[in-house]
Each structure stands twice: as C-alpha cells, then as structure tokens.
Design goal:
Structural class: alpha/beta
Largest sheet: 4 strands, antiparallel
Radius of gyration: 24 Å
Number of strands: 12
Order of helices and strands: HEHEEHEHHHEHHEHHHEEHHEHHEEE
Distance between the termini: 51 Å
Strand order of the largest sheet: 10-9-11-12
Helix content: 40-55%
Number of helices: 15
Shape: flat
Length: about 375
C-alpha cells in the first residue's frame, strides 16, 4: 500500500538511493532502481587476506514501486502501471504497516495489517486471474482452429485449479502442493503470474515495539500469511533503522551504543532483509580470489561448473575443460595468512572437478577452458 515505508526502506538499503519518501500517497510514481551489497563475512575475510585493488561483492538489485490500492487491478490509483512494474521483477518484498502514527497518513485512515494484506493479495490475484483466463482462451482458440490439435487433460486440471485458487485470493507460489508435471505446465502456460514470485513479508513496526520485541498485530499477521500459502515474515522498524543510520553517519558512537543497548545483542535487521531477499530468489555465489581482485559471482542454486564459468564469460562455458576449486571453509582452515592457495593444496583440499560438478555456495573457483581460436587458457 502507499505510505507503509517502501521508499524509506529503499533509501536505507540502496547505494546512493534517493527515492522520494513523503507523507502522502503515491509520492512514488515511476519505479526507482538501485542495488545493495549482500553482507557476507566470508567475502570480507577474503578481501582482508588478498587486499586486492578490485573488490566486488554480490548485489541484490532493488526496485521501489508505487503503492497499490483497492481496485488497482481495474485501474484505480496507479493500478495498471504498478502491476506492470511488479510483473517485471523476480521477487517481492511485501511491506506491511503495523505501527500507529497520526503524522503518517494511511490510505484507508486506520491501521489494520490483515485488511491491508487482503487488499494487496486480492488485487494481485485479480490481475493474475485476468491473465490466466486470457492465456486459456488463447490456447482453446488455437485448438478450435486446428482439428488435429488437442489439449492434454493436465491443461484443464492445472488451469481449473489455478483459477479456483486465484478466485479465492490464494497466491500460486505455494498455495497448494504442486506436482512436478503441474509445475512444468504452469511455467509453460502462465509464467507471467505475479503470485508465482517469491515473497518476503516485511512488517514495519514502531521503534518502541522493535525495542520491546512485541507488537499487537504479529499473531494476526502470521495467521493470515500461514493461511495464504505461508512465507517468511521479518519484523523491523524504519523509525529505528533511520535513527541508527543517522547516528552512524554523524559518527555518534555514544548515541549508537545507547540506541542498541536495550536490544541485548540484537541490531539492525537490514542485513538480514538483504540476505533473505537474495536467498528467496534461489541465488548463490562463488568466489574468485587473487592479488588483482576478489569477486562474488551470482548464479542460480544447482548450477553446474560450466554454467558457473559462463557467468564470467560465455567462452568459459563453451570451452570449459575443468574447474579447480576448494570450499571457503577449507581455505580459511588451512590458510596461514598468505596470498595463495599453497596451504589448501598442501592439505589436499584443492580439488579438480568436471562438467557435472554442482558448484556450491562459497566455493573459491578457478576455471580452465579452451579459447575459441584453439589452445588452453586459465
């Protein structure tokens, strides 16, 4: 919804992000884009050891999209524009307002997170339902034009189930147990459905609630999420995060310590938000490390060694010979502070892998491949 903290969070997370975050609905119209580094101590440790001139972490790319209101699927507010923008992303941070503040207006004039989530889910499902019906109609028209064509029974099974779920405002991503053939059919027929996208629910609470660790809306929010396919719920406070960020920017160490002290070891939730968003997209990364550069290379979970090589350059994939690698844990446990792989090799932990190897998160990799013109290159 508008005025729940989307643009404020965007500005806190993004590198040089400067989205308008005003106290009125639809202050964001055109989507804003930025990126934020994925926090990882492993990457930091590798940078400390190698201290290269070039350092490149993994990034989560963010898009700040205008708020949605009831009736958006029929064009209300910035309805159709918003929905086209959200169709273009890979995953969703669903911001939910769970704080009272008379100075921050609510589009429905009262605080009710469950009602708000019902509004968003309903509008997204209505948009998906219109899309699904159009795709179904197109397929059935094609069959009528060609007597030799016949739609398989699975087509009707999947489309009927999808339509029923969407009519009941149930997201498709995990609203029921899909079989592998059904998943394949969904990806074939209706890949553009918004409710297929992975979603993290971010519950924006007051600074007071964040420090105390409680909020009167939590139980009802969790019950609603569980009854709508489940999902990850992260409570946090824009009010707290903005105050903490301001103290850090001003170098107020005492003020920062005073703010964090009541949390008893807890701190900013922003790093966890970034990590969870990255993980929900089923992404991971491997490292390349040397005197010139330490870098994280993002790829899909389950990628093979040639596919991982292709992230660097397509020539690496087409000409793949083998992968030389070790796990981050093996490198750190054997490393004696030197800028080399000598210790991990001496410990027998440096491996050679072929094209069927599934690259693991945190592997430190070195690829050997054939150049297009012939010959071997590392």
């Amino acid at each position: 919804l508008p005025n729940v903290g989307k643009s404020s969070l965007f500005n806190l997370l993004g590198e040089s992000a400067d989205a308008a975050a005003e106290n009125y609905p639809f202050c964001t119209i055109d989507p804003n884009s930025t990126r934020c580094a994925v926090p990882d101590k492993r990457y930091g440790n590798l940078c400390d050891i190698w201290n290269p001139p070039s350092k490149y972490p993994a990034y989560l790319h963010l898009v700040d999209i205008a708020g949605l209101i009831k009736g958006a699927s029929e064009g209300a507010g910035l309805g159709n524009a918003f929905l086209s923008h959200i169709q273009a992303v890979d995953g969703i941070f669903h911001m939910v307002r769970a704080f009272d503040n008379k100075e921050v207006t609510h589009v429905d004039d009262s605080i009710d997170p469950v009602r708000d989530m019902e509004t968003i889910a309903g509008e997204l499902c209505k948009k998906d339902l219109a899309y699904v019906k159009q795709q179904r109609e197109n397929r059935e028209k094609d069959v009528k034009k060609n007597p030799t064509m016949k739609l398989p029974p699975l087509f009707f099974t999947v489309m009927d189930k999808v339509e029923e779920m969407l009519e009941n405002s149930q997201p498709l991503r995990n609203g029921c147990e899909w079989t592998a053939p059904e998943v394949d059919k969904i990806n074939e027929l209706i890949p553009g459905c918004i409710t297929l996208k992975p979603t993290v629910y971010l519950v924006n609470i007051s600074k007071k609630s964040f420090i105390s660790g409680g909020n009167r809306f939590f139980i009802k929010i969790k019950e609603w999420v569980d009854s709508h396919g489940g999902g990850l719920i992260l409570p946090f406070s824009i009010e707290f995060e903005e105050e903490l960020a301001a103290l850090k920017k001003n170098g107020d160490v005492d003020g920062e310590k005073a703010l964090l002290e009541p949390l008893k070891g807890r701190g900013s939730v922003l790093p966890r938000i970034v990590k969870c968003g990255y993980k929900q997209l089923e992404l991971m990364y491997y490292f390349t490390a040397g005197e010139k550069e330490v870098r994280c290379w993002t790829l899909a979970v389950g990628s093979t060694a040639p596919q991982a090589a292709g992230v660097i350059h397509t020539d690496f994939e087409t000409g793949f010979i083998k992968l030389e690698c070790c796990s981050y844990e093996d490198f750190i446990s054997t490393n004696k502070g030197e800028k080399s792989m000598a210790s991990v090799k001496a410990a027998g932990k440096y491996r050679q892998e072929g094209k069927n190897y599934i690259v693991q998160d945190g592997d430190i990799c070195h690829f050997l491949f054939n150049k297009a013109t012939g010959g071997k290159k590392k």
